[in-house]
């Protein structure tokens, strides 16, 4: 959705504006930056800082329930804490699944546009399987090998895209 949201705002302008104009383009990007920029990052940072604080300063387990210990007390280590952790895991799984599904649709759309690959569930399922296998291989190989390799490849790809953008416009 991060890539599609500006296009959606551009195609369906906010009240008082015209669709498809320069002003609509600017407004579309403003809305997207508002939704995906510092305001969203600040919410993620609060959760990350709470987890990091309790993990590294209080030597607590890296669980969402551990961050609620000052509020819930001993209940954060009982059934209520387990329920909180289950909900957190469920929300994370749903978020990752949604991202993977939407990403597969976007990749399939790009392949259709560039190479005429059919845009259907079978192709999207294949993309999901390939991405899942690559993720599993990366996770199994650990930080020193797999994820470091992915980081290095990502930097090279970003560099190539930067150079191509500078040269080709």
Automatic annotation (TrEMBL):
What does the record list as coiled-coil region(s)?
Answer: none
Could you tell me where this protein is found in the cell?
A: Cell membrane
Q: What is its main location?
A: membrane
Indicate whether Transferase appears among the record's keywords: no
Q: Which domain of life is it from?
A: Bacteria
Any Pfam family matching the protein: BCCT
UniProtKB keywords: Cell membrane, Membrane, Transmembrane, Transmembrane helix, Transport
Q: One GO molecular function term?
A: transmembrane transporter activity
- What Gene Ontology cellular-component terms does the record carry? plasma membrane
Its family remark reads: Belongs to the BCCT transporter (TC 2.A.15) family.
Could you identify this protein by its name?
A: Glycine betaine transporter
Species of origin reads Listeria monocytogenes
Upper taxonomic lineage: Bacteria, Bacillati, Bacillota, Bacilli, Bacillales
């Amino acid at each position: 959705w991060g890539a599609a949201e500006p296009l959606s705002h551009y195609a369906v302008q906010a009240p008082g504006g015209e669709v498809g104009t320069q002003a609509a383009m600017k407004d579309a990007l403003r809305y997207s930056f508002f939704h995906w920029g510092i305001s969203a990052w600040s919410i993620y940072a609060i959760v990350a800082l709470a987890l990091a604080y309790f993990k590294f300063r209080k030597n607590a387990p890296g669980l969402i329930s551990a961050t609620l210990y000052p509020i819930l007390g001993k209940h954060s280590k009982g059934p209520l804490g387990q329920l909180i952790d289950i909900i957190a895991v469920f929300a994370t799984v749903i978020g990752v699944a949604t991202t993977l599904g939407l990403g597969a649709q976007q990749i399939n759309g790009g392949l259709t546009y560039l190479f005429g690959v059919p845009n259907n569930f079978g192709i999207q399922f294949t993309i999901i399987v390939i991405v899942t296998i690559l993720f599993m291989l990366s996770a199994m190989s650990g930080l020193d090998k797999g994820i470091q390799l992915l980081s290095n490849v990502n930097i090279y790809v970003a560099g190539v895209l930067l150079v191509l953008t500078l040269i080709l416009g």
